[in-house]
Amino acid sequence: MTAPTTHPETFRRAVDSLSELRTRSEIELRTMRPPQRLAPYSAAWSAEVLATPPAPGTGEVDDAEVVVTGRLVLLHDPEGQDAWDGTLRVVTFVRAELDPEHAGDPLLPEVAWSWLTGALEDSGAGWTALGGTVTQTSSVRFGDISGPSHATDLELRASWTPTEEVLTTHGDAFAAVLAVAAGLPPEGVATLGVRRTGRSG
């Protein structure tokens, strides 16, 4: 995604930095239609974390299982907005299905929020006016719907105002939250093929 040259330079610089984001092979980012009424200028990306990464050089996976989904939205209002304390706003959403042993953890919301704050700090991003919610939702499937009969999802929604216009570190933080929500090991560390989603620590 590249912002049109008619858009403000601040917004174009921010969009370009996120469009050039490099993520680990299990994470797929795609441009999507952004919200139209939240700010004069906006851009958005959808995210999926795959249980099996694409084969090297192909970019494709047969029947890959998506274990975490997310969205990354960039808003820009040249006039600024009172709640933002700035002219740019990063909005994120991450959803992960929890393993049964983690679904009842009373500390999970605090732990999930720490994924985000820790990722922002570790990436070196600068931000202000950070806020959001962590929600657990339970569902029971009936009839011809695939998946376990009972499922619990974790949803992390957050937004913050970056203190810089090049947002590479903010994109890195978003990708890090996706990875930890999916229970991915550090890059370069092999697993034994056991999927762990929604880790609580």
TrEMBL record:
One Pfam family, short name: DUF3000
Lineage top rank: taxon: Bacteria
Protein name: DUF3000 domain-containing protein
Species name: Actinomycetospora chlora
